[in-house]
Amino acid sequence: MSSIAVITGGAGGIGRAIAAKLAESHSHVVLVDIDEVRTKTAVDELNRDRGSDNNKFSMAICDVTNPDSVAAMAQQVLSLGAVRTLVNNAGATRVDSLHDMTPEAWRRETALNLDAAFLCFHAFEDALKESKGCVVNIASVNGLSVFGNPAYSAAKAGLIHLTHLIAVEYGQYGIRANAVAPGTVRTPVWERRVRENPRIFENTMEWYPLKRAIEPEDVANAVAFLASPQAAAITGIRLNEYKFVNLTLTDIKFIDEDGRQVVTVMYQFAQFDILKLKAERFTRKY
Questions:
Q1: Measured between alpha carbons, how far is 208 from 217 in angstroms, rounded to an integer?
Q2: What is the pTM assigned to this prediction?
Q3: How many structural domains are present in the chain?
Q4: What are the tens digits of pLDDT across the range 7-37?
Q5: Which of 170, 165, 172 is nearest to 125 (CA)?
Q6: Residues 195 and 267 in one domain
Q7: Which is nearest to 234 in space by CA: 171, 157, 153, 183?
Q8: Which domain, by its residues, includes 270?
Q9: Known catalytic residue at 40
Q10: Which GO terms describe its biological process (predicted)?
Q11: Which residue among 21, 56, 152, 170 is the active-site one?
């Protein structure tokens, strides 16, 4: 019996790594992307790496923000067999601040980072019911706190909630839904940022317990686990990497000031910015 994995944003670094990993547990993997040239290159290279098993991967060109395009893609994929795993990985961001955000950019980014996942799930809903399959949504730590990229962050927060909605509503059909929310992943997207700040990885890693960036393969391993029988009883969860922003209580003092009890709280605050990091201490009185 066929067992197909579908990965949106399949031509990118994370998408390719997920595809390579899921090929170990699925009979066929479909890379879905809007960029035909990059997707064909990815599929050709992945198939070549498989050696004699060189028909493991195929591609479907699709604008995942367009319902008609998604419906056509789903029809193409379903002609190959039973879909067991859907990975909503497509995503991108361009605008760093809310001040610079335009209505058009907001709609564009939320469409790609949130609406697309809904459209793809809707298109494969019946197939996933039949296979008692799973959905893995690639979110971000941006969906958990404020790190800039406002539309992207709001959409990723929505994607995490969509994951919970699918898990709760579709668990009765045997469908599982989980999310992976990585932080800094070493992909080509970061090349521009490295050019602007060659020390960005070194500076950013200060705030990570493991002191290293995430590799695409790390994300792929998490996805593979959530899509595996070992996670058969797991649904509605979010695997996230250590957050950049922490507000840590470091000191509390009760002070008698002018006959009033005042609580002075000292915080240690670390804030992540796209191109710089800053840490500061501040005191508040209550």
A1: 18
A2: 0.82
A3: 2
A4: 999 999 999 999 999 999 999 999 999 999 9
A5: 170
A6: no
A7: 171
A8: 246-285
A9: no
A10: monocarboxylic acid metabolic process
A11: 152
